[in-house]
Amino acid sequence: MNxxxxxxxxxxxxxxxxxxxxxxxQAGTAAPGAASVPLSNPAERDAAFxxxxxxxxxxxxxxxxxxxxxxxxxxxxxxxxxxxKGSFYRNGPGLHDRAGQRYGHWFDGDGLIQHWKLDDSGxxxxxARFVGTPKFQAEQEAGRFLYPAGGxxxxxxxxxxxxxxxxxxxxxxxxxxxxxLWALWEGGSATRLDPASLDFGGFVTLSRELRGAPFSAxxxxxxxxxxWNLGSMGPLLALYRLSPTGVLEASRMHTIAPTxxxxxxxxxxRSVVVVLPSTRLGNGDGFFARVRPAPAEPIQVLVFDRETLxxxxxAELPAGxxxxxxxxxxxxxxxxxxxxVHSANTDQVQHLRAPMxxxxxxxxxxxxxxxxxxxxxxASLSRLVxxxxxxxxxxxxxxxxxxxxxMAARSTAGADWFDAVAKVDIERGGVTYARYGRGWMAExxxxxxxxxxxxxxxxxxxxTALHLPSxxxxxxxxxxxxxxxxxxxxxxxxxxxxxxxxxQFVPG
Length: 508
Ligand SMILES: [Fe+2]
Fold this sequence. Notes:
Layout: H1 3-18, H2 42-53, E1 70-72, E2 75-78, E3 86-95, E4 97-98, E5 101-102, E6 110-118, E7 125-130, H3 134-142, E8 172-175, E9 181-184, E10 191-193, E11 200-203, E12 220-221, E13 227-233, E14 236-242, E15 248-255, E16 266-267, E17 271-276, E18 279-281, H4 287-290, E19 291-293, E20 299-305, E21 311-317, E22 321-330, E23 336-343, H5 348-351, E24 367-373, E25 379-386, E26 388-392, E27 404-409, E28 420-425, E29 431-435, E30 440-449, E31 459-467, E32 472-479, E33 487-492, E34 502-507
Antiparallel strand pairs: 1-7, 2-33, 3-6, 3-34, 4-5, 6-7, 8-9, 9-10, 10-11, 12-13, 13-14, 14-15, 16-17, 17-20, 18-19, 20-21, 22-23, 23-24, 24-25, 26-27, 27-28, 28-29, 30-31, 31-32, 32-33
Bound molecules: fe (ii) ion.
């Protein structure tokens, strides 16, 4: 498979999967206890969402942000920690509806970039802007959606010329050694942003042959600043290695089982570890309907040499679905260890349609597991903690053995969203929680090292959460060494932002 074939096939596959097909409900794809049958009509979805929003503040998490963006000076509560300063960027789908038409999947909305500029004094500045992709600009001008989307059912007025025609740049960000900032999706190119104004700076072309190729939303940096990433489309997997400033150094194509989404991966000091979930790409209206549960298929683990990008080892794990990993490391004998958030329910992608029609996504009972892959390929698992997502570590430990792992967590029985940040001690066992309490929907939190600190947990947990009683979003700081003591400081906006996915922090 050469690069040109990959590009041609990936564009054709995405276009076919998102083209408007006869509207029909995706009955039969939901697991017991899951959301009701997805509504295929975008106007019906919009009506159902608005009816629920009127009586359920949790739906604020999926309300669209103003298309003109926001700029505010957040109000400080508590005492801002000395030394915590820099840019906290966040990305997630922020525009779920236009002109009475609502997308069919949480992953479809246009990317809304948040920039929290944090100052030593606690005098922060906040702005949020939609990424000005050609798609966003065209639809802004028209006042309605014009293109197909992964959730299906959308009226299609304009054709796609490739994946970037519908690139919403809505999942994560990548910060570069030269100060550059990219917004990331996983179906097409990365997107350049101005780190101060957040202005759209064009799609990133890694090479002439790779123009428009999928570049996933979870690149990983090695200790030397080099960047690894993957791009997947059906049976094709591209591996990329970039310089610290984002210049392509190497790429290699592989053929894999067509799982649909390959969202994240693990980087060790020697390897790139790709985990293929128990799903298979089938037929359906829109890309996400095509990602079908395959609970009889084991999770496949593919280990590649991180310099040559060649396959070196395979392993299998029990069936399930996996989005995210915190960290991985490799021991002298070649044993690889990594954590992953695993759900035995292989229907997770379908479940994340629910809030588009005013329903809470069902709890998929995801838990964090520590995986060991022996040099022979033999795999074993141990359980770390239940009811978690969005794992992260002290970035100084990346690709080295980490003792601590932090994740958004449901810390109380019956919680219907994350209400805490879990701190897991991998070496000694045990979990402690930085708790939000009732009435909060907590999001991903990052570990920010304290300048000059050396202990692995010497730093802060920084993240956003939606406060339901006041209908406002806040950024909260916890002491990572003492999470049980509760928040150190909080920055309040005067409005609720839609829930987002991933953050990056740039000190300074
Ligand atoms: Fe992610």
